Amino acid sequence: MIHTYEEAINWIHGRLRLGIKPGLQRMEWMMERLNHPERHLKTIHVGGTNGKGSTVTYLRSILQESGYQVGTFTSPYIETFNERISVNGVPISDEEIIQLVQAIKPLAEELEATELGGPSEFEIITAMAFYYFSKINFVDVVIFEVGLGGRLDSTNIVHPLLSVITNIGMDHMQFLGDSIEQIAYEKAGIIKSGIPVITAVKQPEALAVIDKAAKEKRAAMYTLGKEFTGEWKQSLPQGEEFDFQSMFGKLGEVQIGLNGLHQVDNAALAVMSIQYLNAFYSFLVEEEHIRSGLEKAFWPGRMEIISETPIILLDGAHNPEGMRALTDSLKSRYPDYRVTAIFAGMKDKKLDAMINMLDQACDEIVLTTFDFPRAAGLDDFALFLSEKIMTEADWQKVVREFKRNAREKELLVVTGSLYFISEVKRGNLNP
Fold this sequence. Notes:
A hairpin with a 2-residue loop joins strand 3 (85-87) and strand 4. The longest helix is centred in the N-terminal third of the chain and has 19 residues, at 94-112. Helix content is 39%, strand content 19%. The strands form three sheets. It has an eight-stranded mixed beta sheet, with helices on both faces. It is of the alpha/beta class. It has two domains: 5-296, UDP-N-acetylmuramoyl-L-alanine:D-glutamate ligase; 304-426, Mur ligase, C-terminal domain (Protein-Tyrosine Phosphatase, Chain A, Alpha-Beta Complex). Helix 3 packs across helix 9, helix 7 (180-187) packs parallel to helix 8 (204-216) and helix 11 runs parallel beside helix 12 (351-361). The protein has helices at 5-14, 25-33, 52-65, 94-112, 121-136, 173-176, 180-187, 204-216, 263-280, 287-296, 320-333, 351-361, 395-405, 418-426; strands at residues 43-47, 70-73, 85-87, 90-91, 141-145, 162-165, 197-199, 221-223, 228-235, 240-246, 249-256, 304-307, 311-315, 338-344, 364-367, 389-391, 410-416.
């Protein structure tokens, strides 16, 4: 029996040995045994390649400003494991983690003895979230972030009020396929019969796949740039400003608290989703709630400023699409700054594409590594070295030297894998 938080977390992480196991059969088996907690929840399902976490945060913040109790299920965590299951942005307690593991562990052991095999770590955590929000802390609405892909992701047993697809990019290709169309097909797998889908996908070939899936499911589809728009106006000292328009109305000079041009798309998705919930599901959300929710929204590791003097940014640009968003935002927000980057990534990602983008946007690049099974080592970076690109195992030393020597109009961006960003956050670099 599990008695302590450490035992609970060790048991959950011990499921990593099973790897990633796409498919819904194990989740359906566990939900059946738990009397289908997922059927008792009002949910919003958010998928896509990048921007899921930020979009979830905008949605949560707006609904919270409107007086709703909002649960969220997100991944990966940045600072504490508990934040994966949160209520109004507050991670659940250690005691609740113990309670959830005590409920799910016997099922996992029973399932392991069947022909389906034991559940993966992500399946365990997903089951914990469903159980928590239906049996322990019932909330007004739960926003579920897809873990990987969509069609076979363990969150895809929900029948939501709304499906949201942020964007499509070339990521997790070993699981999702090696073309935009194949990846779009997996992402579109979250679309349910008659349930509207709101998307910021822009590539015509990906949109065609999602549109086909929506028509087959008779699901209304609302696309950024067509049925609604978010037009960037300017960067603010903290955040961005944009104008929003849809068939439900206009919102001018909307301000968001997160930095980055790409955040406008994520915020526009959230506003359109809220307007739909307002119009068709009787959610009581006023314009002032939308504005204040967007302005107060915070999500760690997304162009997060952890030091003002000198400027140090954290950004989890863990794939080419994320890196493009980061470098575009750096050029826009800091056009006349000397930029140094520290980068650590995963071996199975497109390191060459990401490093090339950094090379075009930065004056100096330090490639590093960290303690994680899939992390690229210094040897993996050998082909990328140049006069301005070097390797350094001790990334904290680079940060210390930058803090000590930085001059005016110099900034440091620490970027790459979200697991790396998590380690950096835990390294107490905040001033």
